[in-house]
Amino acid sequence: MRTFILLCLLITSAFATFAQQPDVEKRLIDLGLQLPPNQKPLANYVKAVRSGNLVFLSGQGPASMDGKLIAGKVGRDLTIEQGYDAARLTGLSLLSSLKEEIGDLNKVKRIVKVLGMVNCPENFTEHPKVINGFSDLMVAVFGEKGKHARSAVGMNSLPFNIPVEIEMVVEVEN
User: Fold this and answer.
1) In the predicted model, what is the mean pLDDT of residues 14-25?
2) Helix, strand, or coil here: 21?
3) How far is CA 94 from the centre of its chain?
């Protein structure tokens, strides 16, 4: 009888945990966010490659909803706050590519690894503050599953003079 009661408690706990998982699409709406249309790659590559239950997303930069790329060096042409916003926009673009690859963002088990590159002058040292725009978005959308390992580095230049380029690795359900 004791084993049966423990099993019932375990099952109840599992269902309660499952029921508490937020619907990612609803969470985006609640946050007032909209995913941009997924743009085609700008060269000879693909935006996402799935290997087993990992999805590797190519580096992307910030674009407005009409697909126009945002440009400028953070710390010269753009403020840290504008760089933060650019990193956030880049996160939405990456989520759009991820959704196209896996069909449903609720399949995300964990944002695993992120590489954030900041287009900046050589004396700029606030790269983490800029890439926080991306990281804060992932946690806002996915909660604990959005916390990730990360590198934030400075670059002398990025393609098309975009202020940030971000790539990520995501674990998804099979």
Assistant:
1) 60
2) coil
3) 6
